[in-house]
Amino acid sequence: MVELIFIPHELVEKVWIKVEPDVISALERSGQYANSNHIKQHCLKNEMQLWILWDKENKDEKYHGVVITEVIQRPLIKVLNIRIMVGNGRENWQHYISIIEDFAKQNGCDKMELIARPGWERVLKQFNYTKSHVVLDKNL
Fold it and tell me: Out of 8-17, 44-53, 87-96, which region has the weakest mean confidence (pLDDT)?
């Protein structure tokens, strides 16, 4: 059974080798606003949070994906931004969004947010997420 496991910043180094390929891939599809080392450094400093999707019972493939979150204090609200959420077998772990929401509440966040590929709109609709904006970009 796949679980969502929060990785404390002190343990980021130990699991980074496993999550880095997915982080790199996600960043490549996100306009490369950062590289994997930038994300790693933010996680080590506890400025971003690292979560892994892990199946303790599967002896062949334990790792299933990675989530990177960031708590952002804005002038009037505090939000938890899901920076990266990628993995295989999404149907087996997508409901764990509630764990991240609980983490956000525990950290005083007023709102969840994410900039995601279009398919996530359909997936997260069942968890009461709505589209409020669309991100359009152009490389110069």
Answer: 87-96
In a domain, residue 133? The reply is no
Contact present, 98 and 67 (Cβ < 8 Å): no
Total structural domains within the chain: 1
Q: Helix 12-28 vs helix 36-44: angle between axes, to the nearest 10 degrees?
A: 140
* Whole-Å CA distances, 118 to 2, 87, 99, 136: 24, 16, 22, 12
The whole-model pTM stands at 0.88
Closest-CA residue to 9 (of 52, 63, 45):
45
Which CATH number does the domain housing residue 76 bear?
3.40.630.30
* Host domain of residue 53: 2-125
Instruction: Give the up-direction half-sphere exposure of residue 135: CA atoms within 13 A in the CB hemisphere.
Output: 10
User: Is 138's pLDDT higher than 90?
Assistant: no
Angle CA 15–41–106, to nearest 5? 80
Q: Assess if residue 50 is contained within a domain.
A: yes
Arithmetic mean of pLDDT, 22-36? 90
Task: Assess if residue 132 is contained within a domain.
Answer: no
